[in-house]
Amino acid sequence: MLAGRRRELRAARWLIQHLLPEAAAARAPDSPAPLFAVPPVPGNPSGAVTMAAPAPLTLDNVRTQVFEAVFLKLQYPLENRSTIPLEIDILRSDRARELLYTLLRDFEDLLNDLQQAQLPPGQAITTAPTLLRDLWQKVTTDFFGRYYTPQDSGLEQPVVAVLGRDAEAVQQSILNQIPEVGPLLDHLLFQGSVVVDGTSYQATTPEALRRSQLVLENLLLQTACAVMQPMLNRFADVEPLKKGLYQRRMMSSRDVARFRNDLSWRYRWDSLVNEPKAIFESQRRFLTLTPDGIQVQWVYAPRHEELATLGGVPYVLTLALEARDAIAPRFRTVVSLVGSSLVYVLTEVVGRGIGLVGRGVLKGIGSAWQETRMRQRRSRDEV
After folding, report:
1. Residues 1-15: pLDDT tens digits?
2. Strand, helix or coil for residue 298
3. Where are the domains of the chain?
4. pTM (2 decimals)?
5. Euclidean distance between CA atoms 375 and 132, whole angstroms
């Protein structure tokens, strides 16, 4: 409760400081202000609010900048505008937003716990998998309820207890695939520098803050999918859960089955095609919140170690991509040359030949027509 009140007070302070001119003019000089432009909330005609850079930020202020920016973007619509299906697509908008709010709150609480535990800076990367698993367990409990058991479902245990059995599968399929969690922890906990497109930026620069915001948005959305995955695997067709969570257009058993099949196919396609291609192209896929909804953003990230460990079908795919890159330009050149030669032959040789033949045919028809008319005249004269 106290943590929630603290966040509410910080949000109210931000609104008063930046939306009321009198309050902004009377703001104390040591009051922190965001270092980068916050995207506009739909319905706000004033557009983005650009903040001026104050004195060097403290650790708490750097974290506050990132969390407040993500908190504001959670007001955006949560429709999935990307081409990949997500587990949270089945949720009603209010329940999806509630899940993301719960994730943001619990992630901040875990960061506070790590800060109080005085975690050494070098352990941020090794702590990331454990932190994500703890976050998943905590959010699952908070969202579904520790002792919630749907009525008339035949369950003898609470939902959370059953979902916890899939912790290892969720860790391997989703949580371990969330990128740049270690650098995010290092930035938020120890003001570590952030690498963006191969360039290292200090913790308080706008580039570092924007990258941490992007990583945090992706972390929230991917973890929300991880919360919903075991529920869809085990309780997808339980009526009390469907009525409390699902969108109305996805309530039927057929729609639920189709949605689960789409998700299953997406993970297979990602493992066999999309992820090897992204590794070969040195890219990472991030889910981000925009005024239009959830979209995908690709960013540059060297992945040489992952490329060296590829095998089987993913490795064959990278070889096919490399072969295509090597052959395609030469093949296009050959096709262009053959096409140009074929056009020349058809127009300059065959076309002219056909034109000459056609001209001769027309001349022959004309001569025959004239001879016919002359015969008709002679016959009339004789008569």
Report:
1. 666 666 777 777 767
2. strand
3. 32-307
4. 0.72
5. 103
